[in-house]
């Protein structure tokens, strides 16, 4: 084989060769982590990483395909988690045996009536009410509907919290909860997108930041629905739990490995199906149209493309995956804790995954997701080991121990993310695997 052929074979500028080398390196990293952490912890890490991969693919649809700023990743993940609580959490007999369902049904009916009143007010121009009178009528409809709804939901919530704690779930399969989580995220994305996508991109970013914080406050304070800061636990799995394996005589250590392998296999199947679907869609005429809108929406609009409609399509599609990924994480972790959702690890980290991996490239996003999540997880114990050794050395030379090692090590996660994204933007500004656009011959 000639020297030229060898150089071509190792050419990292070739997208295919670059992908093979980087994924091979990631595979080696996973093997090393598995050897150090053990099978149980490795399957835990990989399953959570796959859930985050779904979320990152959703953000890539929005940002990589459409150039849409979405900083409401955390909010959509919370909606997915809340949905899977409602669908799959165990049934609460205290709620169903009380007057709670009746009171909640009245509140829901009042909500629907209020929504119809507002919609009717928005169509009042059909009967000759226009201009300022129409605006005043809409404002009045909103006010009356809100007061009427609160007159029903407040006593219902107080009654449920005092008698049953919270409404509980329906005890159905968690996968149905994942699906409903995606639907709820899609509905919220449709509402936000309808309002904000017609404006400049920075307005969408501002709107999604606000929506994310509103959703967090909303879910966190609805104790009758999600138990708020009291958390909902344990959440069921769609596959056998470790306790079920233990009941069949499997050891405790092996039971966690087998159970997590089952969940990992299910999550991997979902990820592969989603990946193939969006990869095929983006490589076809639909993807070419989306790239044209992203790169020059004015030119695309002049050719008759519905710019806002297509951007709304992307925004909703991406939010579906974010909601499903959030619901999957809630089920796997077996706990829904609204207070645990923080922008740093439920929005910022997902953005880092997409940017480092390569926006617009689904393979790059998968690579970035596993790289960033592994770095996020192992940076804490690695920093603890370093700090403890430094503390022992400093104590031996008379400088004293390093205080609060646990909290300092936890903060190193953010530092590591900052270092990774800085290096990536310096040496790979378009990501480790940049977007590759196939040219039509």
Secondary-structure blueprint:
Elements: H1 3-9, H2 15-37, H3 39-65, H4 73-88, H5 93-96, H6 100-122, H7 131-163, H8 174-196, H9 201-221, H10 223-226, H11 242-247, H12 252-282, H13 285-295, H14 297-302, H15 307-333, H16 343-357, H17 362-396, H18 405-427
Helix pairs in contact: 2-3, 2-17, 3-12, 3-15, 3-16, 3-17, 4-8, 4-9, 4-15, 6-7, 8-15, 16-17, 16-18, 17-18
GO cellular component, one term: plasma membrane
Protein name: Branched-chain amino acid ABC transporter permease
Membrane topology: Multi-pass membrane protein
Question: Briefly, what is this?
Answer:
The protein contains 18 helices and no strands. Helix 17 packs across helix 18.
Q: Can you walk me through this structure?
A:
The protein has 441 residues and is mainly α. It folds into 2 domains: 15-86 and 173-427, ABC transporter involved in vitamin B12 uptake, BtuC, CATH 1.10.3470; 93-165. The protein has 18 helices and no strands. It has helices at 3-9, 15-37, 39-65, 73-88, 93-96, 100-122, 131-163, 174-196, 201-221, 223-226, 242-247, 252-282, 285-295, 297-302, 307-333, 343-357, 362-396, 405-427. Helix 2 (15-37) packs across helix 17 (362-396).
């Amino acid at each position: 084989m000639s020297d030229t052929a060898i150089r071509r074979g190792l050419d990292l500028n070739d997208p295919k060769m670059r992908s093979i080398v980087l994924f091979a390196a990631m595979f080696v990293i996973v093997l090393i982590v598995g050897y150090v952490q053990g099978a149980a912890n490795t399957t835990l890490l990989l399953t959570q990483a796959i859930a985050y991969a779904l979320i990152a693919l959703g953000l890539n649809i929005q940002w990589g395909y459409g150039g849409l700023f979405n900083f409401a990743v955390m909010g959509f993940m919370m909606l997915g988690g809340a949905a899977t609580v409602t669908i799959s959490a165990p049934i609460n007999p205290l709620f169903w045996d009380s007057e709670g369902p009746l009171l909640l049904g009245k509140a829901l009916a009042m909500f629907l009536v209020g929504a119809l009143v507002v919609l009717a007010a928005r169509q009042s121009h059909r009967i000759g009410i226009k201009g300022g009178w129409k605006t005043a009528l809409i404002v009045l409809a909103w006010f009356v509907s809100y007061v009427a709804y609160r007159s029903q939901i407040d006593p219902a919530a107080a009654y449920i919290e005092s008698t049953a704690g919270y409404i509980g779930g329906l005890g159905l399969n968690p996968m149905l909860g994942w699906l409903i989580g995606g639907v709820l995220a899609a509905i919220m994305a449709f509402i936000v997108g309808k309002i904000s996508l017609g404006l400049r991109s920075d307005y969408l970013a501002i709107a999604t930041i606000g929506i994310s914080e509103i959703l967090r406050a909303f879910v966190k304070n609805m104790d009758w629905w999600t138990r708020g800061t009291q958390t909902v636990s344990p959440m069921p799995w769609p596959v056998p739990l470790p306790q079920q394996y233990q009941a069949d005589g499997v050891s405790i250590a092996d039971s966690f490995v087998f159970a997590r392998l089952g969940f990992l296999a299910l999550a991997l199947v979902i990820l592969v199906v989603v990946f193939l679907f969006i990869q095929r869609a983006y490589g076809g005429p639909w993807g070419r149209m989306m790239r044209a809108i992203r790169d020059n929406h004015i030119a695309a609009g002049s050719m008759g493309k519905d710019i806002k409609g297509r951007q709304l399509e992307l925004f909703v599609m991406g939010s579906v995956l974010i909601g499903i990924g959030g619901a999957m994480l809630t089920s796997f972790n077996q706990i829904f804790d609204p207070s645990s959702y923080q922008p740093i690890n439920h929005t910022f980290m997902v953005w880092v995954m997409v940017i480092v991996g390569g926006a617009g490239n689904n393979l790059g996003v998968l690579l970035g997701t596993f790289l960033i999540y592994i770095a996020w997880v192992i940076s804490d114990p690695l920093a603890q080991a370093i700090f403890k050794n430094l503390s022992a050395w400093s104590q031996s030379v008379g400088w004293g121990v390093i205080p609060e090692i646990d909290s300092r090590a936890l903060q190193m996660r953010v530092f590591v993310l900052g270092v990774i994204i800085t290096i990536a933007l310096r040496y790979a500004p378009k990501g480790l695997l940049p977007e590759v656009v196939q040219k039509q011959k």
